[in-house]
Amino acid sequence: MRSRTLRIASSWWLTALFCLLLMATYIVAVAFDDHSFSRWTSFLLHSPAGLTLYCGLAVNIALAGIRIVVLRLREPEHSREGVLSMDTWFAVPATGAEGTSRAAAWMAARGFPPTVAGSSVSAVQGKYSFLPGTILRAGLVLLFAALLISAHTRSTGDLVLHEGDQGDLSGETVALRTIHAPLPPDYLQVGDESSFKVTEVSAVLTAKGTDRTITPGWPARIAGRYCRIIHFGYTQQLTVTTATGSFSKTLDLDVLPPGKSQIITPASSGLLLTLSLQPDKTISKGLLTGKQYDLATPRYRIIVQKGGTKTTPLELSLRSGEQATAQGTALALGKDRRFITLHYAVDPALPFIYAGLLLFLGGSLLMLSRFFWYRKEMAAVVDGDRLLIG
């Protein structure tokens, strides 16, 4: 009864059933939700029904691999019925030890190392040809387990860092040494779309005395956290002075690429400030019009509106370190800096995800060897006055 249950639990038709059920749940998710993939993964990794399907498929694949390994490593035991059930068989006149010795010699002549056990002889080639499939299944099972652990233990967050400052990266102190960014003094923007690429930004972080370069591309591991840059911008000290008082704050401006603007409402000042990058000049050539910016030392276009009154907005243009006064309002900009926003993830299962992918890909490549590396088995049994060979 136990062996029958194991055969059912590790059967390929059960694998196909689980796969069909998973496909059906995905089709339902696609049909009834715009965010189909996130909804499907949430169902699969967090709901009781989804976890049953997910874990059931993983257990089925694991049991199939174990069953195949045990069967392939077990020494074959052949009988008259076993030989007759093989792909091909034939009978020759022979009796007793003479038959077994003739069968052993016949197998050895064909490259099969024979094993004699009483009145039967067996030989196997490609005994370990199950390894590619076993590696592939092991990679799948490890990947299934790692993804499940990752879904329940992974934590993420964002951290804003300025050049020369330190920050808390999920319990680990890191320092931002420098930021490398493509900020040319003669950046030309043509049309509505900008060619400014955040992907070209990089930063050097220090943690536990080790420097690591972080980019917006593949996440880098620093102090056990996986980090990548998701945003870059200017940090600017802004001081606003009116008849009612003074307001000063360090702002992380989201004004890149040129054309974006950021609205600021200084507390208790009654003002509404809109900041954007001011082009140094406009260049026209034929039907094309371009705006030239100095991104190395940017000029800011600041529109000042007084809340609650219908007055004409005040427009000023300032660089870092400059100040201006108009209509009783004084604006001053301090020294500009740069900042980045890091997106980090703490995922204890990530090394196992990589290991599972490596095993799965390695097993997939090794499966190509199955075209010429497969199990071939021969057996012979003395049956009265004849020798059955299969």
Describe the structure.
It is a single chain. The protein is an alpha+beta fold and 390 residues long. It is built from eight helices and 23 strands. The strands form five sheets. Strands 4, 10, 11, 12, 19, 20 and 21 form a seven-stranded antiparallel β-sheet that branches. A hairpin with a 7-residue loop joins strand 17 and strand 18. 20% of the residues are buried. The model has no long low-confidence stretch (mean pLDDT 80).
How would you state the average pLDDT, rounded? 80
Which regions contain 5 or more consecutive residues with pLDDT less than 50? Answer: none
Nearest-angstrom radius of gyration?
36 Å
In DSSP terms (H or I, runs of 4 or more residues), the helix count works out at 8
Tally of DSSP β-strands: 23
* First-residue to last-residue Cα separation: 30 Å
* Strand content range: 35-45%
Q: What is the fold's blueprint, element by element?
A:
Elements: H1 2-9, H2 12-32, H3 36-46, H4 48-73, H5 80-84, E1 90-93, H6 96-109, E2 114-117, E3 120-125, H7 131-153, E4 155-162, E5 166-169, E6 172-180, E7 187-190, E8 202-207, E9 210-214, E10 220-222, E11 225-242, E12 245-253, E13 261-264, E14 271-277, E15 281-285, E16 288-293, E17 299-306, E18 314-319, E19 323-326, E20 329-333, E21 337-346, H8 350-366, E22 376-383, E23 386-389
Antiparallel strand pairs: 1-23, 2-3, 3-22, 4-21, 5-6, 6-8, 7-16, 8-9, 10-11, 11-12, 11-20, 11-21, 13-14, 14-17, 15-16, 17-18, 19-20, 22-23
Helix pairs in contact: 2-3, 2-4, 3-4, 4-7, 7-8
